[in-house]
């Protein structure tokens, strides 16, 4: 009996710590299988392999603040914190895809842990905080961030956001200067993680306005300090960004139907726990208007049902927070979720849900627990099934295309590449030819892939015809095109043409013949590694 009592006493004493550890474990385990996944070829190839050579110098850490996120590659994004994460991963494990996935899962688990601590400290008791953090950890909306390697920008952002938020609340509680300094530091890191972080300072101001009665009035001096520090952090970000990227362009609103539908798709996915693969290329079915409106309406119900005036003010903040973070989805020409702006809106929606459910966990405990159990089962099934779509490039693009309402050529280009990489070069050639035909053979990228599929299949004459047509049109004048022609003519035993295109390869590489030969051998080895049978001679 004494042992039993001491065990119960131990659990009560360390309940918060044990629940925190359990949240971390749940978040890690639900995505543990993704550690052995491959790449999707949607940006992750760039971060892990294509630009990895830029991570080698010791100066790579400082260069992360002087370059765009691809260290000078073709992208408009300036995200030094994301860049630093890939530099650090490279220094530890090189170009390991498994380690990159491991880091993503670890960051996701850390997000869930920090969420538990935040909820336990400011909003709920141990048990409700655990349930809320566990639902966050298991929710299918986290798939893009946890299972897709470049999606870690959202987990990195959430970590910095929740720490900045915590230190801001502590400043409101204690008025200690050190807390607002820490808030400014992590707010700056939010800016350096992704551009939508510029909304963070305004979120804190809005939080204070909606929670005014709880914290009381800040005197003029303390208010001025907060605002001055946020202005300084914004200035530091803009100066650094301008130095690295040049002046930022201004994008206007783009209220295309698909952009607006994606906005509602988020709410539908958050409430009904689906995975918005369909959002990747702006191909959202029209029925997501009413479904999304209904889901958004539920969040309003959660926020205000049977709440007193002060609670309504406070919940108005959590109701508005997703709108603030999702608003950038109405700017620009293409708005893919892909891990962007997923965690913070989900964080707010989960808070609204459990603020609604909290009294029923006391008055109608069995019914409330049954609802939560069903929700958790649905979440786990959705997350495991959805994350399986990231297993490799072929499963990813098959899932994305199959769940899209419309045919999208760019997505099919990616799938052709995936077929080639997975050794199904016959299917690759068939699909590439179909896309080439409907684009009237005018798309150089798909023509290049068609030539590559022919080459891998051993259809050397067809490959030569495609590549020479590209060259005659002044398209795809890149080393792989000339290297492919050298290989194709070599297999056709046309030494004269092979030597001619080898000379063109030397010119394109601006290298010596020996270096060009090394490139050619590496290129051939690369093609052979893609399971194509024709080049195994």
UniProtKB/TrEMBL annotation:
TPR repeats lie at residues 444-477. Coiled coil: none annotated. The chain crosses the membrane at residues 99-118, 130-149, 155-172, 184-210, 222-241, 262-281, 287-305, 317-337, 343-361, 368-390. One of its GO terms (biological process) is protein O-linked glycosylation via mannose. The keyword Phosphoprotein does not apply. Keywords: Membrane, TPR repeat, Transmembrane, Transmembrane helix. GO terms for molecular function: mannosyltransferase activity. SUPFAM superfamilies: TPR-like. It comes from the Bacteria. This is Uncharacterized protein.
């Amino acid at each position: 009996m004494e042992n039993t009592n001491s065990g119960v006493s131990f659990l009560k004493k360390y309940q918060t710590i044990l629940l925190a550890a359990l949240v971390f474990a749940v978040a890690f385990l639900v995505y543990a299988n993704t550690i052995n996944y491959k790449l999707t070829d949607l940006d992750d190839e760039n971060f892990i392999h294509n630009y990895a050579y830029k991570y080698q110098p010791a100066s790579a850490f400082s260069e992360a603040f002087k370059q765009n996120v691809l260290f000078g590659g073709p992208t408009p994004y300036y995200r030094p914190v994301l860049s630093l994460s890939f530099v650090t991963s490279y220094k530890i494990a090189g170009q390991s895809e498994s380690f990159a996935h491991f880091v993503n899962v670890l960051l996701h688990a850390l997000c869930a842990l920090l969420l538990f601590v935040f909820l336990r400290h400011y909003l709920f008791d141990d048990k409700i905080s655990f349930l809320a953090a566990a639902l966050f950890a298991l929710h299918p909306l986290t798939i893009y961030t946890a299972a897709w390697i470049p999606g870690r920008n959202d987990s990195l952002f959430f970590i910095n956001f929740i720490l900045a938020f915590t230190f801001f609340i502590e400043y409101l509680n204690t008025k200690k200067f050190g807390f607002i300094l820490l808030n400014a530091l992590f707010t700056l890191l939010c800016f350096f993680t992704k551009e939508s972080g510029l909304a963070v300072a305004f979120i804190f101001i809005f939080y204070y306005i909606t929670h005014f009665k709880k914290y009381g009035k800040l005197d003029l001096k303390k208010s001025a300090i907060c605002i001055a520090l946020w202005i300084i952090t914004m200035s530091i970000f803009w100066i650094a960004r301008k130095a690295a990227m040049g002046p930022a362009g201004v994008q206007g609103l783009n209220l295309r139907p698909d952009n607006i539908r994606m906005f509602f798709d988020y709410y539908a996915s958050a409430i009904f726990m689906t995975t918005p693969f369909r959002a990747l290329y702006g191909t959202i079915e029209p029925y997501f208007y009413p479904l999304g409106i209904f889901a958004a309406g539920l969040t309003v119900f959660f926020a205000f049902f049977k709440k007193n005036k002060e609670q309504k003010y406070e919940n108005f903040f959590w109701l508005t927070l997703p709108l603030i973070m999702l608003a950038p989805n109405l700017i620009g020409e293409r708005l893919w979720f892909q891990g962007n702006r997923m965690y913070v809106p989900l964080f707010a929606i989960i808070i609204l849900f459990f603020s609604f459910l909290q009294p029923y966990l006391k008055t109608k405990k069995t019914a409330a627990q049954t609802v939560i159990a069903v929700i958790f089962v649905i979440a786990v099934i959705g997350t495991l099934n959805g994350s399986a779509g990231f297993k490799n490039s072929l499963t990813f693009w098959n899932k994305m295309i199959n769940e899209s309402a419309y045919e999208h050529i760019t997505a099919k280009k990616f799938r052709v590449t995936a077929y080639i990489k997975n050794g199904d070069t016959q299917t690759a050639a068939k699909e590439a030819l179909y896309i080439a035909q409907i684009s009237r053979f005018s798309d150089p990228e798909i023509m290049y892939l068609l030539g590559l599929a022919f080459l891998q299949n051993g259809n050397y004459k067809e490959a030569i015809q495609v590549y020479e047509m590209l060259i005659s049109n002044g398209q795809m004048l890149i080393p792989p095109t000339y290297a492919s022609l050298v290989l194709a003519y070599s297999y056709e035993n046309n030494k004269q043409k092979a030597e001619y295109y080898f000379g063109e390869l030397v010119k394109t590489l601006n290298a010596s013949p020996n270096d060009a030969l090394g490139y050619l051998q590496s290129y051939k080895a690369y093609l052979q590694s893609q399971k194509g049978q024709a080049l195994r001679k």
